[in-house]
Specification:
The complex is a heterotrimer of chains A (668), B (153) and C (179). By secondary structure, chain A is an alpha+beta fold. Chain A has helices at 2-30, 33-36, 39-62, 69-74, 81-86, 92-113, 119-143, 167-196, 201-232, 243-268, 272-295, 308-332, 347-378, 387-407, 418-440, 449-472, 479-485, 491-517, 622-639, 642-646; strands at residues 383-385, 519-525, 530-533, 536-547, 551-561, 567-571, 574-578, 583-587, 589-591, 596-607, 610-619. With 153 residues, chain B is α+β, with helices and mostly antiparallel strands. Classes of the chains: A alpha+beta (668), B alpha+beta (153), C alpha/beta (179).
Chain lengths: 668, 153, 179
């Protein structure tokens, strides 16, 4: 009975989505206040029914209702409760429902927190979100209904993929979806603004916090995915340039460009057409990602059960949403007035440079991701693009990005004398070159040009942040005055920028060190045998059988000693066999540390108690995720900036001739 | 053309040139990093290049897996039900590597037709077959390619 | 004019992308019609599920219209389709043979006791070798052969009542009518 209720609620949600997509939009175009006013209740109603529907599916998993096909496939009575809940989004149908629910949540959030928005604009924004919602809910109802029944009812479910029985992966999809779907808010704002023909600084100011929050979720979601892959897949990789990862990374890159471009549009009224295009692109790429993951046109470790029929549905949906919005763009954008004038060299152009680089990187990743498909379609053979290529692309372009990042926060809006900026940054440049050379030479460790480059870039970024802070506090004397600055308008986005850029500096160090100085060894070990690796001694103390709630495992014991013979860690990697799916799984043993991780995973048993083992020494690997966390924190801080809460409607400070104080404000 | 305009054009030109050079490098690297897929029949027919990174895929022949005395080097045959290629790999095989299972190996083909892999991928699903493997089987053996219709996963 | 054309560039790029994505969908290997269709069924000879001493092979299926259903107890969709198979068996239109694929004998027998047995006989393919000859990619799959033993149809995935009524039964009736 309850699954039917869920299905029924889903149908009602679709009806309300249709109402939301049409009535307020028509009302706003024909100036009918009554119709416009329907937007908010319709959004709330849609959300409520989606929530009920989602609750019903959760309930079906919790009560082991195997009469529901989806539960029968992915649920199991032995599954721990937390994974019964996360199993809801463990496969295609349920994850779509989560997606729809999150879209409903964002819609309601926009309707609640944008009370100061002109009613018509709000109605259009919500309407566009309703249109997207129609697509997803009908996708579910017509091709992949999570409430489909199965008869006769199986006694036991097929169980959740053991790889997904993990806390990191339980929360990774909701985070990522919050990010993907959150970009629909910026998208809807852009569409509404294009329809109304009012693309101004106020538009940028409204959509900026939403975009920032979506970006934060996306950042954290991607970082969680990478962290999960690192400890769960058992071979210590943290990024694979897999199509599914790329599908999440591309929207992130464009969203990063978007939040910077929005800053220019908000502060200076410039780049309007570019910003609106980015807003359309960011969400379009997350839809494209959905298509790639669920249609089966590309193969990936993570892809969902592929089905061309579903693929066709999403492709049609993609054509309507992306094609329609780009058509609207082609029609309306030429009429948008150009904003504030600026000089050849100033903060605007630096941000433009950063945008161009981010888009170029995105384009290359898109090319690499789709290349197998393109080659196949053209009959040129079946190919795959090697991992090193993606890495090379990233390494070619990102240093330029970081160089610009160092100059951006210090440069003035509108007009900046290059000589003056050079004088300001002289010390930073010297410091970063000195640091780079120092670390490139074989003094602290083996010599490496890459480490030198990474250290130089990080120092460059750091010194620019310090210089920017010094400039900001130049006229603030005393601690009280400095502290007061933290509460000032615009300080959230300023300190957010500082923290996020600091995150990037840390991130650079992390990825470069771990790729350059990681040590790996596959080895056969007998109990009691020791091996040296990266200044540590590893002793294998044999493996024994253990029993988990829904798996059995061989658990190895490895003791790690440092060069002084002191024991630093006892690691217990496992090789698990999950009983229902009889699927083997490697559970790595990790000794985490700020400066290095020691990572061990079990291979196979080779008889006589011998095992093949995989040992890793991973310097600075945690800095990768630490950097991401800081980026996320920075974004969050910027999103909750007081000025968004105080005056959603106040005239933006975008008029030409803004005080120079603004030169140090804002994310740069 | 005013001097200011000229300067602007120059800067834009420089930027474009920079992007073009970078793009040139990127595309060159692209060609070097492409890994073509070959079936065991292709390899045996001498169509696969030697000494270049390629991918080979098929089903692991039952009973062909041999482990060498160091415990880490493994040799096994991969077939598309027509021809068979011997693959050598040193390291730990993926969890889901099994006889009869479809796999894809990345590596280089030697002159003596031994394929030395530096990566072996097996997929998660009991029913899963990488599409290339499915195609290879189809092409050489008239074997039908169906959908992964049991979504146990 | 140039001024307007510039804004059409993103749309144009998107159109090209869609063309490739659409092509990608139709390239999907899973929708390629089975090369077996129109060809004689592959030869096989396997122990029977109920009686390991006896064998079931392609010769048993020849001389009449027959259906071969690939199934396993580990496959949830097979459970979903089982009811449809029972319905098909009840019509008496055709003999249904089963190929029990990569399964355990006891579990499979128990399944037939519990859920009902639509099959005339079952072949037991423990290691999935015959499955490879038949091009089995996943379970369930269903093949229909004519009286000469030529494969006439392959159904991928669980049979539905709809598919039964619109495709399977009419085809069987047609094949029964031809000599």
């Amino acid at each position: 009975m309850i699954p039917e209720l869920g299905n029924f609620a889903l149908i009602l949600a679709l009806c309300l989505a249709v109402v939301l997509a049409t009535v307020p939009m028509i009302g706003s175009l024909t100036n009918t206040p009554g119709w416009v006013a329907l937007a908010r209740p319709a959004a709330l109603g849609q959300f409520t029914f989606l929530l009920i529907s989602f609750g019903c599916l959760v309930n079906a998993f919790l009560t082991n209702d195997f009469s529901v096909l989806y539960v029968a496939q992915h649920g199991n009575t032995q599954l721990p409760t937390i994974y019964k809940v996360s199993a809801v989004w463990g496969a295609h149908e349920g994850s779509l429902l989560l997606w729809a629910l999150i879209l409903g949540t964002w819609t309601v959030a926009v309707s609640l927190f944008s009370r100061k928005l002109p009613a018509e604009l709000l109605a259009r924004v919500l309407s566009v979100m309703g249109m997207i919602s129609i697509g997803f809910i009908s996708f579910m109802l017509f091709t992949s209904n999570p409430f489909d029944r199965v008869f006769p009812v199986p006694l036991e479910g097929g169980d959740l993929n053991p790889l997904l029985q993990d806390f990191g992966l339980a929360i990774h999809p909701p985070m990522l979806y919050m990010g993907y779907v959150g970009l629909s808010v910026a998208f809807s704002f852009a569409i509404a603004a294009l329809i109304g023909g009012k693309l101004d600084a106020a538009w940028a100011r409204w959509s900026r916090p939403w975009t920032l929050i979506a970006w934060v979720f996306l950042t954290i979601g991607i970082a969680l995915g990478s962290w999960w892959a690192y400890y769960e897949l058992g071979w210590g990789g943290w990024w694979f340039w897999d199509p599914v990862e790329n599908a999440s990374f591309m929207p992130w890159l464009v969203a990063t460009a978007l939040i910077h471009s929005l800053a220019v549009t908000e502060k200076r009224g410039a780049f309007k057409r570019w910003t609106v295009l980015l807003a359309l692109l960011a969400f379009s790429l997350s839809l494209l990602g959905t298509f790639l993951v669920r249609s089966g046109v590309l193969t990936s470790v993570h892809s969902f059960a592929a089905d061309p029929e579903r693929g066709l549905f999403i492709l049609v949906f993609l054509c309507i949403v992306i094609g329609g919005s780009l058509m609207l763009y082609a029609w309306r954008a030429p009429d948008v007035t150009s904003g504030g004038k600026f000089d050849l060299f100033c903060r605007e152009t630096l941000l433009l440079g950063n945008n161009v680089l981010l888009i170029v990187i995105t384009a290359f990743i898109l090319l690499g991701t789709l290349a197998p498909l393109i080659y196949d379609a053209m009959g040129w053979g079946k190919i795959s693009v090697g991992f090193p290529w993606f890495t090379a692309m990233f390494v070619i372009f990102s240093p330029f990005l970081v160089v610009l990042m160092g100059m951006g926060p210090l440069a003035r809006w509108k007009k900046q004398d290059p000589g003056a900026l050079a004088r300001q940054l002289r010390m930073g440049l010297l410091l970063s070159i000195a640091g780079g050379v120092l670390f490139a030479l074989p003094l602290f460790h083996e010599g490496s040009i890459w480490i030198g480059l990474a250290v130089a870039l990080s120092l460059w970024l750091l010194s620019s942040l310090v210089l920017s802070l010094r400039q900001r506090f130049k006229y603030r004397k005393g601690l009280a005055s400095v502290l007061k600055d933290f509460g000032a308008r615009g300080s959230g986005s300023y300190y957010g920028m500082i923290i996020a850029h600091l995150g990037v500096a840390i991130f650079i160090i992390g990825i470069t060190y771990v790729t350059q100085f990681e040590v790996e060894q596959d080895i056969r070990m007998s109990p009691g045998q020791t091996v040296e690796l990266a200044g540590h001694t590893f002793r294998f103390d044999g493996a024994k059988a253990v029993q988990g709630p829904n798996y059995r495992a061989d658990q190895g014991t490895i003791r790690v000693f440092n060069s002084d013979g002191k024991e630093v860690a006892i690691l217990s990697p496992e090789k698990r066999i999950y009983t229902v799916q009889t699927r083997p799984m490697t559970e790595a043993g990790i000794d985490p540390g700020l400066m290095r991780d020691i990572y061990v995973s079990l291979g196979e048993t080779l008889g006589n108690g011998d095992w093949s083992l995989r040992l890793y020494y991973k310097p600075f690997v945690r800095w990768i995720w630490l950097g991401c966390i800081l980026m996320g924190l920075g974004g969050l801080l910027a999103a909750v900036d007081r000025r968004y809460r105080m005056a959603a409607l106040r005239k933006p400070a975008a008029a030409p001739g803004v005080p120079d104080r603004l030169a140090t404000e804002g994310r740069g | 053309m005013t001097p200011k305009r000229k300067k602007r054009m120059m800067l834009i030109g420089l930027m474009l040139a920079g992007v073009a050079v970078a793009a040139g490098f990127a595309l060159k690297a692209f060609n070097e990093n492409l890994m073509f897929f070959y079936t065991p029949s292709d390899v045996m027919a001498g169509e696969a290049p030697t000494g270049r990174m390629i991918r080979v895929g098929g089903l692991v022949t039952t009973g062909s897996v041999e482990r060498q005395s160091d415990g880490l080097t493994v040799q096994f045959d991969v077939t598309d039900n027509d021809k068979t290629v011997t693959i050598q790999y040193t390291g730990i095989l993926p969890d889901l590597f099994r006889e009869g299972q479809g796999i894809v190996a990345h590596g280089k083909l030697q002159e003596d037709q031994l394929f030395v892999a530096d990566e072996v991928l097996a997929k998660h699903d009991e029913n899963y077959m990488p599409p290339e493997v499915a195609d290879a089987l189809k092409a050489t053996h008239d074997a039908a390619v169906g959908g992964s219709t049991d979504k146990v996963n | 004019m140039n001024r307007y054309l510039r804004y059409l560039v993103p749309l144009a790029i998107f159109a090209i992308l869609v063309a490739f994505l659409y092509r990608g969908l139709s390239l999907d290997p899973k929708r390629v019609p089975s090369p077996l269709v129109g060809k004689p069924m592959p030869a096989f000879s396997l122990p029977r599920l109920q009686d390991p001493e006896a064998t079931l092979g392609d010769t048993d299926l020849k001389g009449k219209v027959s259906v071969l259903n690939i199934w396993a107890t580990w496959c949830v969709s097979c459970r979903a389709e089982h009811e449809v198979l029972l319905q098909l068996a009840q019509t008496g239109a055709v003999d249904i043979y089963g190929l029990n694929y990569k399964d355990e004998r006891d579990k499979a027998k128990q399944w037939l006791v519990q859920l009902g047995d639509p099959y005339v006989a079952n072949a037991f393919d423990a290691d999935g070798r015959a499955g490879i000859d038949w091009g089995v990619y996943g379970a369930p799959e269903t093949f229909i052969m004519d009286k000469q033993g030529i494969v006439r149809h392959k159904h991928i995935g669980p049979l539905s009542v709809d598919a039964l009524n619109t495709t399977i039964l009419p085809l069987i009736a047609e094949l029964q009518a031809t000599p």
